[in-house]
From TrEMBL, chain B:
It comes from Spectribacter acetivorans. GO terms for molecular function: glycolate dehydrogenase activity. The gene is glcE. This is Glycolate oxidase subunit GlcE. Its EC number is 1.1.99.14. Pfam families: FAD_binding_4. Residues 1-173 form the FAD-binding PCMH-type domain.
Length: 510, 356
């Protein structure tokens, strides 16, 4: 069966060979269900179509596939037994956390077991002295900071889906968030992982010290999209909560000037806790939606958050204000309290759902570029918008050059979907042209597997496959994701959001 | 430019030929870190001519330089733009290169706050054990396309690939800096360092040796002033204090006696081991000058939740041993990048290539 790109949309049509083998498949499945039921309680093994349906997609809902079987283990021993069984039987396994991923990394396989870690949802230990937390992989990102708050500590990476996304998934995707420029990605905030290998062994990678002996397998595991092992425990670093944080909202009548202001802030020696940018169409859609008080006549706004001690924040607020005024900001506001800070952020955080107000569907891109090419890439994005006849609104993690252009379309109009996909592909190619990457934080999954062929050459992709084989010689962990095979290097995927709705419309998306 | 390409081609050919014949290569840059790990019995593969900053965009906070670039030269160029390598790498000699710095993965006193060598690596160009030139990561801050092979190179001691060039995140130098000194015993110092690190003070160094705790503050002027007044202690105005700490040139860490590096959770109690200890990284990195039995040192570090490296001294196993399952995985990872086991064999662990 094929696992790439468009084949995933809708139910796959069984081909003749599969039809002939239907009874064999049914026998194979019922045997596997029986074997799994010998490891797990009956209610932890789902195999009827109606029970499987909730697992048919993750946050990238355009790609759907019913798994053959879903298992919901409660203990590491059970995960090990499941992996031993599947390994022996040659059955592929896809691990799944909260299912909020945006690149289809947890998309099931029709011949595979979907291993849900949803029941691993306990915070095992908060070690305030050593400033770390030991967590089961299903613990929600935000729950870590909530639990650590009692000690004046927090967990820094804050992907916008943080009220729902799980720490295991964050590790698998190396998730970012608004604060990565200053505080790093998931990889910078991990100490230890417990991982079940494809053949059921339990490995401890890392420790509670700041480094571990041997190769940095902690870095290799982070962002490996479930291809190398099943994460069953995560120990993260906790940081002291900043004493103070304030946001500056600066408006510009020219997008290029806003881009120059970003460079000037960094050039002034300040690393803001967050530095975000939105263009005119995004500002107007958002303002209409959440009434954050954004200036709707602006061509672009910057949101710049600084944090630290009271004294540090005061000094940086003065400095950033001076910089944006010098760079020609038409309107500059500084949050006076936490309520106003939340209000300034509310618009940015509602950017994705707000698109639903101005177009039935949108397609979110995730390229990263060197920031100095921002004006060139933006112009390219606008020119392509004209060329393809599809509107676009831009939101950026400006501090680290991570772009999220949102292409607006209506899937009900014949041809728009195809034009949007082609347009999106051109944007990713533009990112590569200026020395960027096709994915800054959403991962490759199935969505961008085609574009991996553009970013890496044959030898590089072969090296990735060799590393994968070092962990998983028979390719049973999440096959078909993250790294394309040679003959798969043609398909291009896309994220499609129908009627402005993500599978978790209640979540903020950045 | 053509000169560099020729150099890279020549290196690739030598690696490919060594792969073909299974003859070991000993990668060498400035030679300043040759004392770390085990000597390699192989033909020298000299990368010290592979020099130069390929691209430096201060506004992007990214620098890309070739592996043989002198670390001191790179730091000078960054300083001219008011920037720095926030992991504060030790040099261990004027000839230290960027490649050796990343290959050994060492970080200085700023590490708990400024990140480790591997944390700042954004991308690498490497020659794998088959002689292929591969590019991983990139020169942007966020990049999740493909496995993170670049960070895997950090601390691998050249056993997984020959570094050709490295892209690093750089950071602005702090506007102000001050060092305080307080008189404390080791156990009280461990408590004090962790209390301070648990609060949002602008710390960038915390080091204790023979009764004196040094606390470095970095950041905005007003923040450093406020923290200095609140934390208390005498102001230490020795301009080379942190360089000597970084370079292991303090009264305790300089010298020729066996020197152990203990990497432990920062609040771990003072290890009950013979010899003298210094505490760096706010307690997370401890230097032990001792003739203690290696097994005892390792056991103590492991029980504290960390590991121990014989940083200086003679022993046939300088790095902390790994459990069986991790050994096998290391061997397979090594094979995936260097199938013939020709890159720095034995430098890290003698058993890395024994699966062949």
């Amino acid at each position: 069966m094929s696992q790439a790109g468009r084949e995933y949309r809708g139910r796959p049509e069984p081909d003749n060979a599969m039809a002939v083998a239907q009874s064999d498949i049914a026998d194979h499945k019922s045997q596997l269900v029986r074997d799994l039921q010998s490891i797990l309680p009956a209610e932890s093994v789902l195999h009827r179509t109606e029970d499987l349906a909730p697992f048919e997609c993750d946050g990238l809902s355009a790609y759907r596939q019913l798994p053959m079987i879903v298992v919901l283990p409660d203990t590491i021993d059970q995960v090990q037994a499941i992996m031993r069984l599947c390994s022996t039987a040659g059955v592929p396994v896809v691990a799944r956390g909260a299912g909020t991923g945006l690149s289809g990394g947890a998309l099931p396989l029709d011949n595979g077991v979907l291993l849900s870690l949803a029941r691993f949802n306990r915070i095992l230990d908060i070690d305030a002295d050593n400033r770390c937390a030991r967590l089961q992989p299903g613990v929600r990102n935000l729950a870590i900071s909530e639990a650590a708050a009692a000690y004046g500590l927090y967990y820094a990476p804050d992907p916008s889906s943080q009220i729902a996304c799980s720490i295991g998934g964050n590790v698998a995707e190396n998730s970012g968030g608004v604060h990565c420029l200053k505080y790093g990605l998931t990889v910078h905030n991990l100490l230890e992982l417990k991982v079940v290998t494809v053949d059921g062994n339990l490995l401890t990678i890392g420790n509670r010290a700041l480094d571990a002996p041997g190769y940095d397998l902690l870095a290799l595991m982070t962002g490996s999209e479930g291809m190398l092992g099943v994460i069953v425990e995560v120990t993260v670093k906790l940081l002291p909560s900043p004493e103070s944080a304030r946001v500056i909202l600066a408006a510009f009548d020219d997008v290029e000037r806003a881009g120059e202001a970003v460079a000037a802030i960094i050039g002034a020696g300040i690393i803001p806790a967050g530095l975000e940018m939105m263009d005119g169409p995004a500002i107007r859609a958002v303002e209409d939606f959440v009434h954050a008080g954004y200036p709707t006549d602006a061509a672009a706004i910057l949101l710049c958050e600084v944090d630290g001690t009271e004294a540090e924040v005061a000094e940086h607020i003065d400095a950033v204000t001076a910089v944006v005024e010098r760079e020609g900001a038409t309107d500059v506001r500084v949050s006076r309290d936490d309520a106003e800070r939340a209000l300034f952020w509310s618009g940015r955080k509602a950017a994705f759902p707000a698109m639903g107000r101005i177009a039935p569907d949108y397609y979110c891109m995730d390229g990263t570029i060197p920031r100095r090419h921002l004006a060139r890439v933006l112009k390219g994005i606008y020119a392509l918008s004209e060329e393809y006849g599809q509107g676009v609104a831009n939101v950026f993690h400006a501090g680290d050059g991570n772009l999220h252009p949102l292409i607006l379309y209506d899937a009900n109009n014949p041809g728009e979907l195809e034009r949007t996909e082609a347009y999106g592909g051109k944007i990713l190619e533009l990112c590569l042209e200026v020395g960027g990457t096709i994915t800054g934080e959403h991962g490759v999954g199935v969505e961008k597997i085609g574009h991996m062929c553009l970013q890496f050459n044959d030898a590089e992709r072969d090296q990735f496959h060799a590393i994968k084989a070092a962990f998983d010689p028979h390719g049973l962990l999440n096959p078909g994701k993250a790294v394309p095979t040679l003959n798969r290097c043609a398909e291009f995927g896309a994220m499609h959001v129908h009627n402005g709705e993500l599978p978790h419309p209640e979540l903020e998306r950045l | 430019m053509t000169g560099t390409e020729d150099l890279i081609s020549a290196l690739r050919e030598r690696v490919a030929a060594a792969h073909e014949r299974s003859t070991p290569l000993a990668i060498r840059g400035g030679g300043t870190k040759a004392f770390l790990g085990h000597p390699v019995d192989g033909a020298f593969l000299d990368v010290s001519a592979l020099t130069g900053i390929v691209d430096y965009q201060p506004g992007e906070l990214v620098v890309t330089a070739r592996a043989g670039t002198r670390l001191a030269e790179l730091e000078t160029v960054l300083a001219e733009q008011g920037q720095m390598l926030s992991f504060e790498p030790p040099h261990f000699g004027a000839d230290a290169t960027l490649g050796g710095t990343i290959a050994t993965g060492l970080s200085g006193p700023r590490r708990p706050w400024g990140g480790a060598a591997r944390d700042l690596v954004l991308g690498t160009r490497v020659i794998n054990g088959r002689g292929e030139l591969l590019h991983f990561g990139g020169d942007v801050m966020k990049n999740v396309a493909g496995y993170d092979v670049s960070r895997l190179m950090a601390g691998a001691y050249g056993t997984l690939g020959v570094l050709v060039s490295i892209s690093l995140k750089v950071l602005p130098r702090p506007a102000a800096e001050a060092t305080l000194v307080q008189q404390l015993d080791a156990t009280t110092a461990i408590t004090r360092m962790n209390e301070l690190a648990g609060k949002p003070w602008p710390l960038s160094g915390a080091y204790w040796e023979t009764g004196e705790l040094y606390l470095r503050l970095s950041g905005a002027e007003r923040a450093v002033d406020a923290a200095r007044d609140a934390i208390g202690g005498d102001v230490d105005d020795d301009p080379d204090r942190w360089t000597r700490i970084r370079e292991l040139q303090t009264p305790l860490t300089a010298g020729a006696e066996p020197l152990w590096r203990l990497s432990v959770p920062p609040a771990a109690p003072l290890a009950d081991l013979p010899g003298d200890q210094a505490l760096d990284w706010g307690g997370a990195q401890r230097w032990l000058v001792s003739d203690a039995d290696p097994a005892t040192v390792r056991d103590t570090a492991e029980k504290a939740g960390g590991h121990a490296t014989l940083f200086r001294g003679d022993h046939d196993a300088r790095f902390h041993p790994l459990p069986d399952a991790m050994r096998k995985l290391h061997q397979r990872v090594k094979q995936s990048l260097d199938p013939a086991g020709i890159l720095n064999p034995g430098r890290l662990y003698p058993w890395l290539d024994s699966a062949r």
